[in-house]
Amino acid sequence: MTKLSRSLLGMLLVASCSGVTAAQDATSLPKVLEIQREYTKPGKAGAAHEKTESLFVQAMIRAKWPTHYVALTSLSGKSRSLFLTRYDSFEAWEKDGAAVEKNATLTAALDHAGLVDGDLLDETDQSVFIRRDDVSLRPKSDLSHMRFMEIGVYHVRPGHGKEWTELLKTVMAAYEKAVPDAHWGTYQLVYGGDDGTYALLTARKTLAEIDRGFQDDKQFEAAMGEDGMKKLDEKFGAAVDSSQQQLFAFSPSMSYVEDDWIKEDPDFWKPKAAAAPAAKPAADKKDKP
What we know:
Layout: H1 6-15, E1 32-40, H2 47-63, E2 69-74, E3 80-87, H3 90-102, H4 104-118, E4 121-131, E5 148-156, H5 161-178, E6 185-191, E7 197-204, H6 208-239, E8 240-250, H7 259-264, H8 266-269, H9 282-287
Antiparallel strand pairs: 1-3, 1-4, 2-3, 2-8, 4-6, 5-7, 5-8, 6-7
Helix pairs in contact: 1-6, 2-4, 5-6
């Protein structure tokens, strides 16, 4: 067996996503994925960022806004949060933005939240992807019971898009044979970054599923065979000039999710408020200056 490049191994780990539960089929998944990234200043992540982001969530709840989003916080790489919003089309995205602008109350609340939140941020950006059904394997849309997200980002060399597509299809065929439960969603960047950028998204219930992914890799390699793995590694090196694997955790306090998600797992998506601290005795108050 040939020794795989670390990048290719990472792609295979992402592909082995046995943790996603079934819900809707691929034909019902939204086509457009908007990802906003917020890089927090040192020491401004965690509870501080959750507090400011809750202003956005409360504004959306008061407006009973129909468009929802889910937030992820980084467990690897630079401290940052991702906000994923899905649309059926670019037209739907346009109509959503126009409706927000016409709602003066919501716009004012979002502007205020943006000012407060901005004090914690070091940098922001926004990217737009479209789903590639031809190189996605049984993607799932129900993330209500998911807790983590692996995101593999790959940049394909100019002029090698066809080779990249063929490589992914080869990986798909082997996983269909060796790991029947494997499934993932592939998205292609269309705005907000370098052309030729692709993201493979894998949601997981627990990090234990990553441990099991290494066993799935062995089954995949057995299905490919030594010669097949060697050719796959060579094709990957020829088609891809950079790649990275990142791990995120779902953040319920920063997410504005559908009611169905909350009903599916209320303890996670709508946790009970923490009890207020007990009042100090009157004697303590007298001792204060």
